[in-house]
Amino acid sequence: QVQLVESGGGLMQAGGSLRLSCAASGSLSINVMGWYRQAQGKRRELVATITSGGSTNYVDSVKGRFTITTDNAKRTTSLQMNSLKPEDTAVYYCYAQGSWPRYESWGQGTQVTVSS
Fold first, then answer.
1. pLDDT band with cut points at 50, 70 and 90 for residue 7
2. How far is CA 58 from its chain centroid?
3. What percent helix, strand, coil does the chain show, rounded to 5?
């Protein structure tokens, strides 16, 4: 199994920047890493994903503001969040997916709070 440990997050004023990082342990290959978020009272939603080949996908609300990167050798992914808005406030979860064997792993979550 793959275990994910997140770091970063915290409290930031609107317009500021934060960086989230996630490190994967274990030996199973990873096809996709990404970030989801869940605001209080809302469903968990995809924020950004990146494949091992470098293809990225973003939810429309963060396009142009957030950037996801990955280091396949180090088995890490990072989410650079710029121009933060209060609506970005949520618990952010790191995510990893593999296909042989097929699995999905989640981090424990890290809180991001953006004040207006």
1. very high
2. 11
3. 5, 60, 35
Query: In which band, very low, low, confident or very high, does the pLDDT at 1 lie, cut at 50, 70 and 90?
Result: confident
- Looking at residue 27, its pLDDT comes to 87
Give the C-alpha separation, 13 to 85, whole Å: 8
Relative to beta strand 76-81, strand 18-25 is antiparallel
The first and second tokens of residue 98, run together, are 């593999």
Length of the chain: 116
Q: Summarize pLDDT for 41-97 with one digit per residue, the tens.
A: 999 999 999 999 999 999 999 999 999 999 988 899 999 999 999 999 999 999 999
Report the chain's terminal Cα–Cα distance, integer Å: 40
The two three-digit tokens of residue 65, written as one number: 């503001």
Between the CA of residue 4 and those of 22, 25, 76, 84, what are the distances in Å?
6, 7, 9, 24
Cβ neighbour number for residue 74 with a 10 Å cutoff: 9
Dist. CA 11–CA 95, nearest whole Å: 22
Token pair listed for 13 = 């004023």
